[in-house]
Amino acid sequence: MPYLENLGYSRYTAGFLATMLPLLSFGSRLFTGWISDKITYRTLFILAVSGQLVSIILGFFSSIFIALLLFVILLGLSYGSVHVLRTVALRRYYGSTHLGPILGLAASLGQVGSISGPVFAGWTYDTTGSYDLAWIVSAILLLAGIPLLAALKKPVESIAYGAAV
Questions:
Q1: Residue 73 pLDDT > 80, yes or no?
Q2: What is the model's pTM?
Q3: Could you state, in order of their start, the residue ranges of all structural domains in the chain?
Q4: Dihedral Cα 143, 146, 151, 155, nearest 10 deg
Q5: Distances from the Cα of 46 to the Cαs of 19, 53, 86, 106, 155, in angstroms?
């Protein structure tokens, strides 16, 4: 919210937009869980990460209200989708025998970005007086992830265990 207030938005507007993120994420998780049985998870995963990329680009222009609004909508929807799809992908690639530890490891590694991202953004702002570099680095990291997702090979199902091998 301080970022949005720094851009000149009221505390009410900032609070309302911040509230929209988890609500949209909640809805997209339900929808993604349903649609992932109808469309390949890899395609959905690429779309979700692409949605995050577009949202970050829009976030760069968040001083324009429509860009900010689209940023919040796209980020909320794509963020929720990625959480569902990560679990689906891990299950399909590694099976369910050790899914708990695998999910725990994946979630823990994901926390590296959750912890370092805000620290990096704060350092960027303190150093340059702007969040621009943080937006750009976030976009580059997401952009790098899209071809990696596209390069994933379809897992081979094991008859004995029902898991990918």
A1: yes
A2: 0.85
A3: 2-151
A4: 150
A5: 26, 10, 11, 18, 17
Q: Check residue 153 and report its DSSP letter.
A: P
> Residue 81: is its pLDDT beyond 90?
yes
Q: Kindly state the helix (H) or strand (E) to which residue 129 belongs, with its residue range.
A: none
pLDDT at 163: 54
Nearest residue to 72 (alpha-carbon basis) of 11, 138, 20? 20
| Domain 2-151 is found in CATH 1.20.1250.20 | yes
- What pLDDT shows up at residue 46? 93
DSSP label at residue 130? S
Cα distance between the two ends of the chain: 45
**What is the spatial distance between Cα 22 and Cα 29, in angstroms, rounded to a whole number?**
10
Give the Cβ contact number of residue 153 at 10 Å.
8
Contacts of 105 (CB under 8 A, 6+ apart): none
> How far is it, in rounded angstroms, from Cα 152 to Cα 57?
25
CA nearest to 47, candidates 137, 142, 134 = 142
Residue 57 CB neighbour total at 10 angstroms: 19
Query: pLDDT above 70 covers what percent of the chain?
Result: 93
> How many residues are present in the chain?
165
